[in-house]
Design brief:
- An 8-stranded parallel beta sheet has the order 1-2-3-4-5-6-7-8.
- With about 270 residues, the chain is α/β, with parallel strands linked by helices.
- The model has no long low-confidence stretch (mean pLDDT about 95).
- The protein contains 9 helices and 8 strands.
- Helix content is about 45%, strand content about 15%.
- It binds zinc ion (ZN).
């Protein structure tokens, strides 16, 4: 089996996790910028984090034979502090030329607040001005459907945005169809406690097809499973999916989406 982990917060994982992922067939990992589990106190904290994502972590991944790419932003949780968010938005362009930066993400909404929306629009504007791919985080549980619709409307309102260059992540059964109908890609996050399980993800693939969908573990500092993608592939195999089709979902699809960035090199 070979696969790509298109959404893993590896700065918070151990070397054992890298070893397990490489042993399971992972060829490449992509890391969106994320909340650290605490609010950073200044823009300098983001500067250091972006250095970690673009410099140190690719070197760490390479020690396990994995290529490593990243996405940059201030996450929705910290966007509530608009002044800080504007400072971070001013910092991001200095990093966009680095060779492993694929785009802007994971932007989006958390509590669907007015400030989060304002900073989301500013990120979308930055992506449009600098011709970056976009990776979007959608809110959890009861806020998900409303938040997803708000995000889709922000993307649609900016006429410079090409829908096929945006992936909307953490979709579930009640949001995947609207995302695909707008022409975007959709990501399914495989979590043991919330979001999607491997079985639910396989159901979604069987219902909506697998043209513009990918799966990820979104492993971070919380309860999450770095091998969730290969586990889901086992579920698909159990259901009789052919090896070729499984390969196209867990390996081919992330490559097709990310190859829209000239920096991404298929492993
Ligand atoms: Zn994430």
């Amino acid at each position: 089996m070979r696969y790509i982990e298109p959404h893993g917060h590896m700065v918070s994982r151990t070397t054992d996790d890298y070893t397990d992922m490489a042993a399971a067939g992972c060829a490449c990992v992509c890391e969106p910028a994320f909340w650290a589990g605490y609010d950073r106190s200044s823009v300098d904290g983001f500067h250091d984090y972006f250095c970690q994502l673009t410099d140190y972590e690719p070197k760490r991944a390479a020690r396990f034979g994995l290529s490593h790419y990243c996405w940059l932003c201030i996450n929705p949780k910290e966007s509530e502090d608009v002044a800080l968010a504007q400072d971070v938005l001013g910092l991001i362009p200095k990093f966009l030329d680095r060779p492993t930066v694929l785009g802007i993400g994971e932007i989006g909404l958390n509590k669907n607040s007015r400030n989060e929306l304002k900073i989301l629009e500013m990120h979308v504007d930055l992506a449009a001005r600098t011709n970056q791919l976009i990776l979007v985080h959608t809110p959890h549980l009861e806020d998900k459907l409303k938040g997803t619709r708000l995000i889709l409307d922000v993307l649609k309102a900016d006429r410079r945005i090409q829908p096929e260059r945006c992936i909307i992540d953490h979709v579930e059964e009640h949001t995947v169809q609207e995302v695909l109908e707008r022409g975007h890609w959709a990501g399914m996050t495989l979590y043991p406690e919330s979001k999607c399980t491997g079985a639910r993800a396989a159901d979604i693939l069987e219902t909506y097809g697998h043209e513009r969908l990918w799966m990820n573990s979104a492993c971070d500092w919380g309860v999450s499973v770095p091998l969730a993608v290969p586990y889901a592939a086992l579920e698909m195999r159990k259901r009789g999916w052919t090896p070729e089709t499984i390969d196209s979902v867990i390996y081919g699809n992330p490559i097709r989406f990310m190859s829209q960035s000239p920096k991404f090199k298929a492993p």
